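Per reviewer request, we include the raw input and output of the structure prediction for the construct analysed in the revised manuscript.
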Amino acid sequence: MAQVELGGRLVDDQSRCAHYAGPLDVVALRFACCPPYWGCHLCHAECADHPAVVWPADDRQAHAVVCGVCRHTLSVEDYVVADGCPHCAAPFNPGCRLHHHLYFA
């Protein structure tokens, strides 16, 4: 597994957190403001010392997502169309699409 910095109120080693800990909640996301990949937006709000900054619409190549299963990183562009990890095939929670606006402009 690749080494990435994870942040938040994590409950396991696959990036599930106190807020989202279902079987498909294996994605951690980075905001444009800081390096850790966070378990979720609520983890950033509770644990970071600054407000979250979303990725600008013109920065879709930024690797802002990590699969908690294999630690493969994905670009914003690749993640927003993915149903799962292109590296290990771990399925992602389809409900996360409802929160894309919290991370990506």
